[in-house]
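Dear support,

Our group has been running a series of protein-ligand predictions, and this particular one with pyridoxal-5'-phosphate is the one our PI (initials K.S.) wants archived with full inputs and outputs. We had some confusion internally about which version of the output was final, so please treat the block below as the authoritative record. The input we submitted was:
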Amino acid sequence: MKSIKFLDLNNQYKIIQNEISNSIQKVFDNSSYIMGPDVNDFENNFAKYTGVNYCIGVGNGTDALEIAIQSLNIKNDDEVITQANTFVATCLGVTYNNAKLVLVDSDDNFMIKIDDIEKNITSKTKAIIVVHLYGHMCDMDKIITLCKKYNLYLIEDCAQAHGAIYKNKKAGSFGDVSCFSFYPGKNLGAYGDGGAICCNDVNIYENIKKIRNLGSVTKYYHEIIGRNSRLDTIQASILNVKLKYLDGWNKKRQEHANLYNELLCDNVNITLHKNNVSEPVWHLFVIRIKERNELKKYLEFNGIQTGVHYPIPIHKLECYSKEFEGMTFENTENDSNEILSLPMYPELSSEEIEYVCEKINKFYDITI
Ligand SMILES: *Cc1c(COP(=O)(O)O)cnc(C)c1O
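Confirmed final output from the archive:
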């Protein structure tokens, strides 16, 4: 029987093994383990790639969101709007800064339901966090119009969207601040934790640089209460190697998505993830089906690993359930029972995708 992993990091590592070893060796040879040229190079390279003035490496994507919100001076009773169908880290930065999290439902394509945002804006609203979930982007023009109309900051959670494009501009180039994660499984992943914040404003940039490095620019001169959340130098050296491959890897993901879509589009039981406005980078390939749990089991039985992103909406998570007691978000809740993430990574072969689709279609021949 075939065995198809949901994610296989080893395959990709083997291809770039020598380059990675050399880059890590250089960090050891230079004995510059904290910051140094590798972090600097990566920050410059990633700013250029994303199309922004500044990039600041940080410890991970969760820290990126927390620091980004702090850098905009959002705190206490300030309100921040985001979508109910996201990874918990999107929300933690709001909560950690003691601001109030305001959730909005998702639309039919897993993006924030833009029509529901306006009625949630109050005099205390300071920012909107858009999540480019699964590597797709929402209608950024509409979001930017809203932010301008109500004088709100725009924060992009780009943890799943390195390289995604909306109207010729990359994810991360729209927001006042945008946050990236380099968790190993992301489109651009380190071999450990890593994250970054992008921005265009020099004052925000300098503020973020201080916050991530103990509140100081000059060693031992601490101007503000900062923290230690620097991008690890070894991870930066790895990311410098991998960034060169990102566009090629994303292209592979797009080809895989095209093949999945082609092989599944005739199956009336399946709702595919449409992309109407952006050029997505398919961090995940998510389908919607009524028989989610049964299909998941059937695929597992046939050697195919799948995932669910995410099984519990933010307002139902134990850590947030009290805060959002009694609230419902219909699409988000329905989706959480119907979504299934199929195997997706650049090194996947056409044969493997064909096998997955054959089994999915067979499941429906048997059960329906
Ligand atoms: C992965 C992820 C994060 C957090 O990144 P970490 O580096 O794991 O802390 C934030 N938001 C979204 C949408 C993510 O997928």
